[in-house]
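Morning. Coffee machine broken again, so started the prediction first thing and wrote up yesterday's gels while waiting. Chain of 198 residues, entered below exactly as on the submission form.
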Amino acid sequence: MKKISMVLLMFLCIFGTAFWYSVEVQKNLSDNLLRMHIVANSDSEKDQHIKLEVRNDILKNINENSTLWQLESSAREKLRMLGADYDVRTSLERCYVPVKEYKNISLPEGYYNCVRVVLGNGKGKNWWCVAYPPLCFTEDVFGDLSENGKKELVQRLESESFDAIIKNGGVNYKFKIVEEIQKLRKKYNSECENMHRS
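Came back before lunch.
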């Protein structure tokens, strides 16, 4: 009986430490990264092209002093130039963002502060990136974080958070811990919401 209690206690200590570590890393990332979410009007080829053009325009002009009004105004002007017959809405929200993999960096899923740019009906495929510090890659999935980008992250993030997201070849166990705990938290939150609805 003592052995079972010791094993259970050891498991709880390890899980508790992993959970605490994951929560702290996710909080540090969430507090220091601003994500960008651009949603297309529809999945038509034309609307997806417009989404990418609006994205390119935003990425050229965004900086830490940009306001939502400026982003929305710029996107609206771009839509007009492209002949789109719909409007744009921007908002600052708390969004659940999926895992994002790049060549040398992985960002875990979780809640982040997020600038949402919704084009027209907002029924099309979307595009995610890190708007600030500016780490948006136009290659969508396989971007390569520059040395300047790494320096920017080192200055903004705690060392544990930085170590958890940087790929140095092989498996990044710190990232895996954060990723798995975030999945458990998402599942738990989803089940709690379902219980409240019924």
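The first helix runs from residue 2 to 32. Going to sketch it on the whiteboard this afternoon.
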